Amino acid sequence: MTFVSERVRVIKASCILSIHDTFTTIRPSLWLLQIIVPSVFAMFFFYMIAGVANADQDFVVIGNAVQSIGMTTIYAVSGIPGVQKHIGTMTPLAISPSGLFSIFLGMSLFSIFAGFISIAVSLAFATFVFGVSMASVNLLSVLVVILLTAFSIGGISMMIGSIGIYMRTSAIIANVATYVGLVLCGVNFPVSVLPGWAQTIAYCHPLTYAVQATRDAVNGCTVTELASPIMMMIVLGMIFIILSYLAFRFFEKLSRKKGRMDVF
Amino acid sequence: MTAEHEYPIVVEGLTKVFKPTRRSKLPEKVAVNDVSFHVRKGEIFGLLGPNGAGKTTTIKMLSTLLIPTSGSAKIFGMDTSGGDEKRIREMINLVSGGERGLYYRLTGRQNLRFFSNLYNIDGNKQDALIEKLLEIVKLTDAADIKVEDYSRGMKQRMHIARALVNDPQILFLDEPTIGLDPEIARDVRSLVRQLADSGTTIMLTTHYMYEAEELCDRIMIISDGRNVGYGTVAELKQMVSDTNIIEIVTSDDPHDTVSKLLTERRFVHINTERIAGRYCTRVQLKDDTDVLSEFDSLFSGYGIRKIGYDEPTLEDIYLSLVGSDEH
Amino acid sequence: MNIKAVTSSFRQQGIQFLADPQWIIPSIIAPFMFTVVALYMYSGGGELDSPIVLTAVLGGGVLGMWGNMLFASGFTITYDRYNGTIEPIMMTPTHLIDVITGRSIWNALIGLLNAILVFIFAELIFGVGVSVSEPLFFFPMLALTLFSLASIGLMLSALFVLTRASFVVMTILEFPIYVFSGALFPISVLGKLEPISYILAPSWGVDAMKTAAVAGHESITAFGIYFDVAVMILLMVIYIAAAYILFGVIERNIRNSGTLVRY
Question: Looking at the predicted structure, is the pLDDT value of residue A263 above 60?
Fold first, then answer.
């Protein structure tokens, strides 16, 4: 039991620290703005292109509302090790008995929550600014899907982030991860247009299921009707979290061997 | 010689108040409070005080980095916030202690070249200048190594070289030897001495009393932003001439006795330091009564090696003026 | 203006960039991905021959230049904050803006590299070649557009001096240019929002580039390229003047509050 309560304490403390850290550099209003502005502009940007290209504008707007999690969660979470290296706190964290995984999990929680907020706010904009009809929406489905989106995307982001413990290129990795979903996961155009190998990657990425399930939920699908994408998100989320735990241990060891803990 | 050339730095009623910002929740802070002094040409002027006393804030106001809330700081007769910043900046430079302040991904030489250009130094004079500076700080061999690979001491010497690119007439040094090993710190001090001997006016802040005593012609001690002592070391010693110092050297740590004595009011200051394996306790007291025998019995249990009256050092003066908050 | 400081800052930025060129990559990823998405959307997975695809590729180049410009001007000051070199710079007789100008010019040139990368990828992946109908006009227009972006970058870098949250500011500022420059879709579809495009120099640059590259492109105004150039230059002068004023105000501001050294 002490093992669990120790973990919980570490995770909680890391989570609180990351919240404090966020709001000492930026005001809550600016924080919200940085979530809303890129998300709304991205919707607007691709909405316009869809208009010129005679494509389905609702499809694009909902897709980008979900993709807004790219900035808030994927970028933020996968960039955490890089940030810690940058400010020089990686070494003190690594020598603490807590283990990096718990610390980074705690630090990620707020960004995962932010991802949830980001999608919810973006969907509101989708309705009120871009006229996506919510006439037949199934709110429960939307809620479940967004929650699971945040969870599964949090998992994949942590796994990507673990690389940053060892590599000094974590900024690049975080950036690629942020935008790769935009192309691969059916955000702006159907996955079926992509070449075969790209489709394979798309179906291993929880965002692909998240985007489609959100569209279906907006169009009235119930939770049971969405069972299959929901299951996929749960399973992928869990796999990625386990993988990230293993990856953290692996890269931690590797960087201790090679002395790369504070290289950035 | 005009007044501003005799006194290149003239400070009058200098005050800096940091207003609380909306988010930081910091209370309004009077960092520097009505400080006045002047610095003669070619002298080394020391600014001493505990952490947060306002030393760095004062240096920043003098070096045009901060605008005073009230009062004035004049460099060669020009106000540091009166529109002559550019001309002042041409004549001054600043060395800050610590690791930061250089471009890590550039070599030492590239750093110096960049800053020479910011001081608009003639292109065909730069090579010779940089060579000379590297020689002065003994970094000629490391000139083409990236600064990120420098040791702490090398970085500090590079800071000094950087600060000399414009051949400043006034050099500000903000804790230039902090964190350096004794040998390198000594090198830095002798360099400071040389610069002063060649006519550079130097103003430095430091935590190390022996450094101030060794280097400074005159000193100002500030605490909580206020001037609490100002003059030559001899003049400062006059300020505490009514204080007697007893030094007791013991083999064991007299901690219990010292903490008991601290509760008594008759002492200005007591502190114990460990020097070469012995415990050296210095007691400052105001009255003239002979307390030597009293102390002899108080400390007898710790193995007294030496006991007697002593002359006040700068450290004693500092401690009595600033109080014991820090020690 | 201290020309030596400008050229030296240009060189310094170059040396630093070459010492660690990975920092360029984040700035090209987003615009590159956007261009890829736009190409997929315009082609619908098939036809790639229409002139709109060529304009999208050209626009993608502009996105690349802007992404780089914004990222680099944000990072420049953040880097100085981190290194603790911002006070040593401020203490010199050189105006901070001279240093930033030198660096911006380097960044602009790297931005050009970004644009070329987008063109190459478009050719390799989608087989869309950039064929330019009037190269004599096109390349000067490309260069001018680049410098118009640099002048916006200069103005915005003042904001980056002020803020510790440079990444946040970057994120917020990235999109408006993507949207309003008409890089990936004609600004006429913006409707009531179209006037915003008029005050952004790159919109005129994009228009001039497209007019020079794509035969039959309908220009914003009936006056053609020369008008585009005139407006662009006028706007650039305004941006640069604004940058100078802003930097003056900001320098005074930080000398009062003493907050510059935090990062």
Answer: no
Give me the residue from B98, B113, B115 closest to C88, CB to CB: B115
Q: What is the pLDDT of residue B325?
A: 44
Looking at the complex, report in whole angstroms how far the Cα of residue C13 sits from the nearest Cα belonging to chain B.
10
State the pTM of this model: 0.75
Q: Count the Cβ atoms, other than its own, within 10 Å of residue C158.
A: 23
Q: Distance (Å, rounded) from C-alpha C55 to C-alpha C48?
A: 12
Does the structure show a pLDDT above 70 at C49? no
- Shortest distance, CA B95 to any CA of chain C (angstroms): 9
Chosen from C27, C32, C34 to mutate, greatest number of chain A CBs within 10 A: C34
Read off the pLDDT of residues A207-249 as tens digits, 9 standing for 90 and up. Answer: 999 999 999 999 999 999 999 999 999 999 999 999 999 988 8
Task: List the one residue out of C219, C214, C221 whose CA is nearest residue C52.
Answer: C214
The CATH code of the domain at B241-311 is 3.30.70.260
| Pairs of CB atoms within 8 A across B/C | 100
The reported pLDDT for the residue numbered B320 is 79
> Which of B317, B229, B222 has the alpha carbon at shortest distance from B31?
B222
Spatial CA neighbour of A66 closest among A1, A118, A22, A110: A118
> What is the sign, positive or negative, of the torsion defined by CA atoms of C214, C195, C178, C63?
positive
B184 vs C220, residue with greater confidence: B184
Residues 6+ apart with CB under 8 A from C173: C70, C156, C159
CA distance C179 to C215: 23
CB atoms within 10 A of CB C81: 20
Between chains, do B114 and C12 touch, taking CB under 8 Å as contact?
yes
Boundaries of every domain in chain A: 26-101+113-258
The letter for the amino acid at A27 is: R
Phi, psi of B138, rounded to the nearest 5 degrees:
55, 45
> Looking at per-residue confidence, does B325 or C98 come out higher?
C98
How does pLDDT run across C84-103, given as a tens digit for each residue? 888 888 889 888 888 888 88
Q: Is B231 left (phi over 0), alpha (psi -120 to 50) or beta?
A: left
Tokens of A44: 């607007």
Residue carrying structure tokens 């630090």: A107
Contacts of C9 in chain B (CB under 8 A): 114, 117
Q: What does the alpha-carbon distance between residue B123 and residue B211 come to, in Å, rounded to a whole number?
A: 38
Cα separation, A204 vs A219, in Å, equals 24
A34 with C29: Cβ contact below 8 A: no
pLDDT of residue C46: 62
Q: With beta carbons less than 8 A apart as the criterion, state whether B122 and B172 touch.
A: no
ipTM of the complex: 0.85
Which chain C residue has its CA at the smallest distance from B16's CA? C256
* Long-range residue pairs from B32-36, CB within 8 A, at least 24 positions apart, any chain: B32/B57, B32/B58, B32/B61, B32/B68, B32/B222, B32/B225, B33/B224, B33/B225, B33/B226, B34/B71, B34/B226, B34/B227, B35/B11, B35/B71, B35/B220, B35/B222, B35/B225, B35/B226, B35/B227, B36/B11, B36/B12, B36/B71, B36/B227
Other beta carbons less than 10 A from residue B21's beta carbon? 10
**Residue of chain B with shortest Cα separation from C256:** B67
Homologous superfamily (CATH) of B3-237 is P-loop containing nucleotide triphosphate hydrolases (3.40.50.300)
Task: Give SS3 for B286.
Answer: coil
Rounded CA separation C2/C8 (Å)? 10
C4–B120: do the CB atoms touch at under 8 Å? yes
Over 80: is that where the pLDDT of C261 sits? no
Q: Do B65 and C256 touch (CB under 8 A)?
A: no
Q: What is the DSSP letter of B146?
A: B
- For residue A38, which residues of chain C lie inside 8 Å, CB to CB? 171-172, 174-175
Neighbours of chain C (3+ CB pairs under 8 A): A, B
3-state helix, strand, coil in chain B (%, to 5): 35, 30, 35
